[in-house]
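Reproducibility note. Readers wishing to regenerate the assembly model reported in the main text can use the exact inputs given here. Chain order matters: entities are listed in the order in which they were concatenated for prediction.
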Amino acid sequence: MYDTALSAPCSACLREVLIDPTVLAAQRGDELAFAALYDQHVARVFAICLRLAGDAVLAGELVQDVFIRVWERLASYRGESAFSTWLHRVAVNTVLDRSRQRRRRSLRVAIEADLADLTLLDRSPARLVEPGLGLDLEAAVLRLPAGARAVFVLYDVEGYAHAEIGALLGIAEGTSKAHLFRARRLLREMLDR
Amino acid sequence: MNCTDLDARLTEWLGGSLSERDARALEAHAASCDDCGARLEQLSRPVSLAATITPPPALRASVLTAVRQRRLSRIWRRGLVTASAVAAVALLAIALQPHRKEASDAPRGASMRMASERVKPELAALAAAEQELVAALAGTPDDAALQRALEDLRRQRVALERIVQQVAS
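Running the prediction on these inputs yields the following structure tokens for the assembly.
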């Protein structure tokens, strides 16, 4: 007879199998393992922060916030998705939270305003990245208006669906699509100049 | 703008020769029409960006130091909470001393149970903090701040256990 008690893996064992050993070690408090995770993922996290924030100095601060948050929430990662997916979500949420916390206009307000504003680019273009960091396309992405840039990065680079972007940014799905088309057009125009 | 208008103006949109106002109108239509949206989505797909960007090298040290500081301060906070628990139990122990004739056996037993329940989570928190420090020290055994934190926590644990024993006896 089939013995379910013996064959069904316990949730803790399943976790050990599903989760990368470096992540498991970091979850147990191993700082060297955490440093290894940093080395493995920082370039992707930095790309997300830089492209969403549009500012290299701010991106550095955000990367720090992301990894502090990851350290504090590491225990909540259960291996349901790839660690990189979980980490990238933390990164996106950290950038959006920071934007919401700021006293000046939030990203959400900026996003709404972007579509109403008929000027081609932000009145205060984002600071360019540090020398050697970016290509022409990267610089062009950083010059996009905040809303168009956020949707472009989330959709075209990070692979989010419009419905998810709408939920994250607090905008309608159609608004997300309009931002995307505009972002692509503006990028093409900037690169063709 | 409708689907026919979009067809007629698509080349101009792709070539960047439409006015901003007309381009926005075309995009707004595509955002609300599934067919046109799918076409625009296909035709305007951009050159893909690299998934990664190398960060400034100095960022590594600052991030890992910040994480360590956050970890230490959390352990210290936990230590402070435990210290307050030690004080609370000490006060209770004094209150339960035998020369306090007014305390009858029955309420004394209840108070002892209460004290014991109060101490349990504090001891568990202390043990977890100790474990965390031991794990951190395994990675960097020469870290003086971590060593001091561990010594402090151990001292608190010993003090707490001594008081618990006194109260129990």
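We highlight two features of this model. The CA atoms of residues 65 and 96 of chain A lie 12 Å apart. Chain A touches chain B through 50 residues (CB under 8 Å).
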